[in-house]
Amino acid sequence: MSDTSTGNSKVVVNRSMSLDGFIAAPGHAMNWIFDFMAPDAFPEIAAATGAMLIGRRTYEVAKRQRDADELGGKEYGGGWSGPVFVLTHRPPESPDPADMFLTGDIGEAVATARSAAGGKNLEILGADVAGQCLRRGLVDEILVYVLRCCSATASASRPRALPG
User: Model pTM?
Assistant: First the structure.
């Protein structure tokens, strides 16, 4: 249980994957998910989320997808807006003013992002950041969405739909 409890808000690790455990395509891309569900498929999660804490690699992948307008330009296909905190050891020289970069302790980063969430949930994205939060006992909830598809092979660039 999180040691930074704030009312009813939670620290949530949120993941989508195929039936066989496929999470990211080459280059860590996550846009394959939208072949199997709409970007705004989870309006209740977007509404409950007040801020996001992500890792640098997740930030870079999301930035590429936003720049290519593969995600409707925003998280949850435009269904969410709020502060995004990027935990990194190497902030970019010219950071995007819409994102805030944090360095240092994971507990401090969670407390900062959770405070900015305004009483709503803090969503954790990125495998390394999620792992750090789990090891420190900072996660209140893990949501895993298993999509009705599976990858053709372990090296497939995109999963395939299951029949029926």
Answer: 0.76
